[in-house]
Amino acid sequence: MSTTTSSSSPGGEPEIVIVGGGIVGLVLTIGLLRVGAKVKVYEQAQGFREVGAGIAFTANVIRCMNLIDPSIPVALRSSGSVATSSGGAEDPDDYLRWIDGYERHREDPRKQRLFYKLSAGPRGFEGCRRDQFLESLVKCIPPNVVELKKRLETIEDRGEDQKLLLTFRDGTTTEADAVIGCDGVKSRVRQILLGEDHPASRPSYSHCVAYRTLIPMAQAIEALGEYKATNQHNHVGPNANLLHYPVANNTMINAVAFVRDANEWADDSQTVAVGTRDDVKAAFEGWCAPVRDLIERFPDTMSKWAIFDLWEFPVPQYNNDRLCLAGDAAHATSPHHGAGAGQGI
């Protein structure tokens, strides 16, 4: 049975519906609530459980968080975010480092050549666990603002004097004065805004897969040594790279193995498959000892993420009348711009 909820209110304030309750959707919700907007969020998942292990934000993004609402950087810090470098008092800057992960030195098998490092300034890059940050953001939002298990099907524009009508897969409907799609790289709102047949309505496979995991810091130090484990490094080699940085108050590292894939992704309706440690070991066979030792600490099975983006067909416009896009729905990028959620914020 269809149930319609109305956005009308005694004060006549316009209601904004946000489709998608990921990091960008919740940050936007907090900011709109701060300025007194009436907001409702509809998320298709059964609960708030962000995936992808870790995430990092630049200092500029964190400053933007503070401008949107000071509670957002507080939520970030309470989720265990840490600077991704720990140079100490002598060198407090954060650095992004690219090092040789492939060449093996006969004299010292654990030696790795530094290709390049880029200073991001003090606390210039902070890493945290995605799930813990999302849980902290949820606590900043009043009850009843978010509805779960709501997969959007259609948005009907019934004319300028009427509210937009949203219909969900479960048969329920709601009304809104404006809709913002924060529903990710496979955004349904983007399809509605541009049209089903528009080439930018659907993302393209970047021919890269990501194996993501969290590893206890003690195990990471065993594999990499203390300096590499407690500082961000990107190990580079043929057809793959392995990125890691500290999270969770330096008790863990976020480790992601990126592997190039010449094949097409079999089912673009499902971007996550089951991956194994053996898959990762095969992709990094022959690499230097620290990389192989870290991969030995990966779990037996983990999520294997197909990386989709909008590079081939960029979205020509982020809004059309009362529909708008934000985050990956608008400008999904592939690694390593370090600007997915950051760009959305």
From TrEMBL:
Domain of life per record: Eukaryota
Annotated GO biological process: secondary metabolite biosynthetic process
Keywords: FAD, Flavoprotein, Membrane, Oxidoreductase, Transmembrane, Transmembrane helix
GO MF annotation: an example: oxidoreductase activity
Pathway: Secondary metabolite biosynthesis
Domain FAD-binding: start-end pairs: 15-343
Segments passing through the bilayer: 16-35
Family: Belongs to the paxM FAD-dependent monooxygenase family.
Protein name in the entry: FAD-binding domain-containing protein
Provenance organism: Xylaria hypoxylon
Lineage of source species: Eukaryota, Fungi, Dikarya, Ascomycota, Pezizomycotina
